Amino acid sequence: MSPAKAMQDPHAGQPVLSRGAPLAGAKAAMIMVHGRGASAEDILGLAEELQAPNVAYLAPQAAGNVWYPQSFLSPIESNEPGITSGLALLGTIERQVRDAGIPPEAVFLLGFSQGACLILEYAARNARRFGGIFGLSGGLIGPDGTPRDYPGSMAGTPVLLGCSDVDPHIPKARVLLSADVFERLGARVSARLYPNMGHTVNEDELEAVRTTIGLLLET
């Protein structure tokens, strides 16, 4: 990639790591997005804890381990082109999943922290039926007052929003606002605020993810 292209679309062509079932023979796929300063390998570690058979796990690697430079609450333009580039990469991966024969309703999105913000924004901007959306310590992107008139319908997609009630990076109010937006889009939302939890993923969240995957695989 040329230096100019890298500046305009920093995440284009970044590696996508995989675990679990081969995509060609999988019953479902989960796109997993890591947080700031972490890696695709880090987030794929959760795949082992989910213990779901017949699922292909795909995790893109952000350029420089960062999807966008500022807080997700900053003006969107201050986080460009990172946000747009990251969303485009998720779209590319989802198209590859669908080309492999996995329908949208068998596609899960899971992200932690900055990755959670990215997958939630992607889901809202591409509202339709997914297998499940798991935003762990994240919220929709942009400052207070950002328009949230996303088109489309989530058509009953289960959405989990899990976060500490005192997270230093993710305000409780943004988690609740995100829950309201997804409910208006027709999702089945579970917003879970954990008292005094750190900026992490807990077993209750993982069990909720396992349950959602299991319900889909049983059908």
Name the structural class. Answer: alpha/beta
CATH topology: Rossmann fold
Query: Radius of gyration, rounded?
Result: 16 Å
Q: How confident overall, as mean pLDDT?
A: 95
In terms of DSSP E residues, the strand content is: 15-25%
| Uncertain runs | none
Strand tally is 7
The percent of residues in helical segments reads 25-40%
Q: Return the CATH class.
A: Alpha Beta
How is the biggest beta sheet arranged? 7 strands, mixed
CATH architecture: 3-Layer(aba) Sandwich
**How far apart, in Å, are the first and last alpha carbons?**
43 Å
Helical segment tally?
Answer: 6
CATH superfamily: Alpha/Beta hydrolase fold, catalytic domain
Total domain units: 1
Strand order of the largest sheet: 1-3-2-4-5-6-7
Relevant terms:
219 residues; alpha/beta; Rossmann fold; 7-stranded mixed sheet; 7 strands; 35% helix; 19% strand; globular
Brief synopsis:
The chain is of the alpha/beta class and 219 residues long.
SSE topology sketch:
Blueprint: H1 3-8, E1 16-20, E2 28-33, H2 40-50, E3 55-60, H3 82-99, E4 107-112, H4 114-125, E5 132-136, E6 158-164, H5 172-184, E7 188-194, H6 203-218
Overview of this structure, please?
The chain has about 220 residues and is α/β, with parallel strands linked by helices. The protein has one domain (about 5-219): Alpha/Beta hydrolase fold, catalytic domain (Rossmann fold, 3-Layer(aba) Sandwich). It is built from six helices and seven strands. The chain has helices at about 5-10, 40-50, 80-100, 115-125, 170-185, 205-219, and strands at about 15-20, 30-35, 55-60, 105-110, 130-135, 160-165, 190-195. Strand 4, helix 4 and strand 5 (about 130-135) form a beta-alpha-beta unit. It is globular, with a radius of gyration of 16 Å.
